[in-house]
């Protein structure tokens, strides 16, 4: 698990290899990840958008940006958490993801970014 705190918002990420399958005659490696967002600040915050950079071992880079997470824009009171599960496909058995969430602080009405720490994606059969 990787964790990081930015402006009182703690991000924790756990990953899981889901398996391989063929798509368009190419092998794909499926990875799942669980993200927990914990509001350790004294303010009410809302997650409005996400921005991911996804890397694989073949030097492919994919950028993913959009509103919310899995169709939600969670509002977190102080001490609350929001957990969600998502996933990605890679064309190699190794990779990594990193990014940030765009959030708003309801107390100050200011937007801010929360860093999503870099986490590795690796198929267990490909490890030494």
From TrEMBL:
<dbReference type="InterPro" id="IPR007474">
    <property type="entry name" value="ApaG_domain"/>
</dbReference>
<dbReference type="InterPro" id="IPR036767">
    <property type="entry name" value="ApaG_sf"/>
</dbReference>
<feature type="domain" description="ApaG">
    <location>
        <begin position="3"/>
        <end position="128"/>
    </location>
</feature>
<protein>
    <submittedName>
        <fullName>Co2+/Mg2+ efflux protein ApaG</fullName>
    </submittedName>
</protein>
<dbReference type="Pfam" id="PF04379">
    <property type="entry name" value="DUF525"/>
</dbReference>
């Amino acid at each position: 698990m990787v964790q990081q705190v930015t402006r009182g918002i703690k991000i924790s990420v756990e990953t899981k290899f889901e398996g391989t399958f063929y798509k368009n005659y190419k092998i794909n490696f499926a990875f799942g990840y669980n993200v927990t967002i914990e509001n350790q600040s004294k303010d009410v915050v809302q997650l409005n958008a996400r921005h991911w950079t996804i890397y694989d071992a073949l030097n492919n880079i994919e950028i993913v940006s959009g509103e919310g997470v899995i169709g939600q824009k969670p509002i977190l009171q102080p001490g609350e958490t929001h957990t969600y599960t998502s996933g990605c496909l890679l064309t190699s058995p190794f990779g990594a993801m990193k990014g940030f969430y765009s959030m708003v602080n309801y107390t100050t009405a200011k937007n801010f970014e929360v860093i999503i720490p870099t986490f590795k994606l690796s198929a267990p059969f490909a490890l030494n």
